[in-house]
Amino acid sequence: DRLVELLPSYVTPRITVSAISSTNPLTLQDTLSIKATMEIVRRYSHEGYPVVDAAGKPVGLLNRRQLDHAHEFELDAQLSSIMEIGSFSVLPDDSIDTVQNMMNLSGWGQLPVVDERSGIVVGIVTRTDLLRALGQGERDLRQNFAAELDAAFSPGAKALIDAVASVAQQFRFPVYIVGGFVRDL
């Protein structure tokens, strides 16, 4: 009984794709024209889209960069001519290790999640979803570094940062400090 009681504190359940993926993703039909696809992408602004055949099964992936290049050269062929061809996908019950391996193998930053029986796309898992899941249990990177900044900056620099932060807060605009010294903190 004591072992069963202690087990959850030492063993964590594996994280599955269904826990980190988004459901009902926007998919693109492989027969769409580049022009029609551009209109859809402008409307939704995602970075990547699973491309499916008429049956709803994944046949490739389109990322924003590919579409921008095709549009720049005024191509108006079918989507299937510019997408990354492949049937890389994961199942809802797969582990995040499977996602990581599949992303490394395919080079895709988004993977379709397919129904095991039908093979139809039912979700999408992104590199961001994976990184967030892998980072669980890590310290919160959004923690407040005010004390560290006070020590790192001269009084003049700190006053400037405080003034910028005050104006940004007034307009509800996010402001970030970036660079090597932030990493070092």
How does this model look, in words?
This protein is α+β, with helices and mostly antiparallel strands and 185 residues long. It is built from 9 helices and 7 strands; from the N terminus they run ααββαββαβαββαααα. A hairpin with a 5-residue loop joins strand 3 (48-52) and strand 4. The chain has helices at residues 2-10, 17-20, 34-44, 64-72, 96-106, 127-134, 146-152, 155-170, 180-184, and strands spanning 22-23, 28-29, 48-52, 58-63, 84-85, 110-114, 121-126. It is flat and about 65 Å long. Helix 3 (34-44) crosses helix 4 and helix 5 (96-106) crosses helix 6. Residues 137-142 have low confidence and may be disordered. The strands form 2 sheets. It has a 4-stranded mixed β-sheet. A 3-stranded antiparallel β-sheet has the order 1-7-6. 43% of the residues lie in helices and 15% in strands.
